[in-house]
Amino acid sequence: MRAEQVTAAEADHAEGPVWWGPWGGLRYVDMLAGDVLTLRDDGSVTRTRVGAVVAALRPRAGGGAVLALERSFALAARDDLTDVRELGEVWTDPAVRFNDGGCDPDGRFYCGSMAYDATPGAAALYRLAPGAEEEPRAVLQGVTVSNGLGFSPDGHLAYYNDTATGRTDVFDYDTVNGLGRRRPFVRFATGAGLPDGLCVDAEGGVWVALWGGSAVHRYAPDGTLDRVVTLTASQVSACVFGGPDLDTLYVTTSRTGLPPGAEPAAGAVFAVRPGVTGLPALPYRG
Prior knowledge:
This protein is mainly β. It has strands at 4-5, 14-20, 25-30, 35-39, 45-49, 56-59, 65-68, 72-76, 85-89, 96-103, 109-115, 123-128, 137-143, 146-151, 157-162, 167-174, 178-187, 194-200, 206-211, 215-219, 225-230, 236-242, 248-253, 269-272.
């Protein structure tokens, strides 16, 4: 399958797409610009600046959003993000920033980090519980480039990418213990691209964006590759299902680090209808 370009190359580094009806549809981040972008019904894209860096956002169950900025979590009470309030730094090292995140079935928000120079093992995956139940805490240490978190339809499995490992891993998940037993789900061949963002469809298929691979791969629950979506941009960063029926796969791309004039579509959002539907976004319950 081939995804078609649906926006101009609006972003330098588009990431973290999420579909939420009350927001009007698709939002994603231009990470290092510190902007949240919204795709409108007419195909136009609008920007809202929320910080020096914005790594990820998810809807709050009661309205507004939870966000990960450079080194802090933040909350917005309004859907238009005009009242973003930082919750304080999770760490102080300016060489490390947040990178990608999502919510679990119990309404907790996770976001992982990476060093700006991708120092091996310098990052972690952090969890923000709803309300004041606990301070943000690291639930996974020794990470290099934290990316892509998604859950199976029954909520019992979590899929995760530490991009530098060249694989997608799967964890057991339950409410009390959170992320449990970890094992490899898919190992990517040299030259296929590196696993970046991911999402899970209603059949339990896992869709993985391949940075440097010009593609998104779908893996059946048993880890078998069964579909490939190709794009005209090589740095494929993340994917999510959206549309009123959750039957459209939206894919973000990046032009960070590319030579001037290379890959004119890099930084655009692409879309394809792959014949399966996705899962609704999991909201933050704080």
